[in-house]
């Protein structure tokens, strides 16, 4: 399938985690599905999937939310890549990023995992770190809170006011990455806001 892209939103399954910082990748994939009025269905790759199009006549999008926990996201991601016959460079992983300030979106292909166990597991399962990533900034905790606890907390009241904008920006970044390429998306989303 020449122009098919798999977009994997990382997160943890179940209602306990759905509103947490660690699940922002899945929130972005939900937004992409909502824009196209698509619903998720069970897939044999241990994920929920919505098949749709970037735009009429455009690339096919396989929007995916693994049913596995974050740290073992690689199996579903690699299973979907095999099922849809998609190379790693067309598997877009959307995930939370501690080292990027809240309300910021950054894109890259390849490189290290930066301590993110979900990204580490996807790279291991795909057999390469060379896949595009849309990194959604959640910032680091203030004070002494353990980052492992921070990512499993829901967004704070102030963050929730701008969260829909951040999710929308990240969804826009995914669309632009696929439509115009990594460099164009980086130039738009890495530039300071006016």
Architecture overview:
- With 194 residues, the chain is α/β, with parallel strands linked by helices.
- The relative contact order is 0.19.
- It is 35% helix and 21% strand.
- It has helices spanning 24-35, 74-83, 117-126, 147-150, 157-180, 182-189, and strands spanning 4-9, 41-43, 47-53, 60-66, 91-97, 105-109, 132-137.
- It has six helices and seven strands, in the order βαβββαββαβααα.
- It has a seven-stranded mixed beta sheet with strand order 2-3-4-1-5-7-6, sandwiched between helices.
- The longest helix has 24 residues, at 157-180.
- The mean pLDDT is 93.
- The chain starts with a strand and ends in a 5-residue tail after the last helix.
- α1 (24-35) packs across α5, α2 (74-83) packs parallel to α3 (117-126) and α5 runs antiparallel to α6 (182-189).
Topology:
Elements (H helix, E strand, L loop, with lengths): L3 E6 L14 H12 L5 E3 L3 E7 L6 E7 L7 H10 L7 E7 L7 E5 L7 H10 L5 E6 L9 H4 L6 H24 L1 H8 L5
Parallel strand pairs: 1-4, 1-5, 5-7
Antiparallel strand pairs: 2-3, 3-4, 6-7
Helix pairs in contact: 1-5, 2-3, 5-6
* Largest sheet data: 7 strands, mixed
Low-confidence stretches: none
Count of helical stretches: 6
Q: Indicate the mean pLDDT.
A: 93
- The coarse overall form would be globular
**Secondary structure: number of strands:** 7
Query: Strand percentage, roughly?
Result: 15-25%
Give descriptors for this structure:
6 helices, 35% helix, globular, alpha/beta, 194 residues
């Amino acid at each position: 399938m020449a122009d098919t892209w798999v977009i994997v939103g990382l997160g943890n399954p179940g209602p306990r985690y759905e509103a947490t910082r660690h699940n922002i990748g899945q929130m972005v994939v939900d937004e992409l599905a909502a824009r196209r009025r698509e619903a998720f269905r069970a897939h044999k790759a241990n994920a929920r999937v919505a098949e749709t199009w970037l735009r009429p006549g455009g690339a096919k999008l396989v929007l995916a939310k693994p049913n596995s926990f974050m740290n073992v996201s690689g199996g579903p991601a690699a299973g979907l890549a095999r099922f849809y016959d998609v190379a790693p460079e067309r598997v877009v992983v959307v995930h939370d990023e501690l080292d990027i300030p809240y309300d910021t979106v950054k894109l890259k292909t390849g490189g290290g995992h930066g301590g993110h166990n979900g990204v580490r597991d996807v790279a291991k399962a795909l057999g390469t770190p060379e896949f595009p990533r849309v990194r959604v900034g959640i910032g680091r905790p203030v004070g002494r809170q353990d980052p492992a606890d921070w990512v499993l907390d829901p967004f704070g009241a102030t963050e929730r006011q701008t969260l829909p904008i951040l999710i929308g920006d990240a969804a826009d970044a995914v669309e632009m990455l696929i439509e115009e390429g990594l460099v164009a998306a980086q130039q738009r989303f890495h530039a300071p806001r006016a």
